[in-house]
Amino acid sequence: MTARRAGHYHRVVRGTRVLSLHHASVRVGDLARSRAFYEDLLGLDAAPRPDLGFPGAWYTLGESQLHLIQQAKVFDDIDPTDPHVALEVEDLGAVRRSLDARGIPYRDFGGGQLWILDPDGNVVELCERG
Q1: 2-128 CATH, one of 2.70.180.10, 3.15.10.40, 3.40.50.720, 3.10.180.10
Q2: How far is CA 89 from CA 13, 74, 118, in A?
Q3: Where are the domains of the chain?
Q4: Local structure of 69: helix, strand or coil
């Protein structure tokens, strides 16, 4: 995990090391059409998905997942429903402390994940294993 400062990246505090790619999410306009593509054409097997309050589908890809999200943009700034990659970190508490100390904004609902923007405005989810 790195933070941008004056055009350079500096290593963030211990415990924020990225362990793996947890999932990648894409926004879809027609879930049925997208499921046909990913399941019928590509042969992906659907994974269990909790009720998140909006339509979607999850697929297991080795140790990672692909998440389809059929939801209009919810927030103007950091939006967890935007297309994003999710990176698993060692210690989400250490990540929160580091972001707070650096004044880096993030969206946090108090669970096992939070969302930030990279320097180009792409959403990055940081989550704990489990």
Answers
A1: 3.10.180.10
A2: 12, 25, 16
A3: 2-128
A4: strand
What are the pLDDT digits (tens) for 44-53?
Answer: 999 999 999 9
Read off the amino acid at residue 78. Answer: I
Tokens of residue 126, six digits: 């940081």
d(CA 109, CA 87): 17
Q: Are strands 84-89 and 107-108 parallel, antiparallel or unpaired?
A: unpaired
Q: What is the DSSP string of 21-57?
A: EEEEEEE-S-HHHHHIIIIIIT-PPEE-----SS-EE
89-122: pLDDT as tens digits:
999 999 999 999 989 999 999 999 999 999 889 9
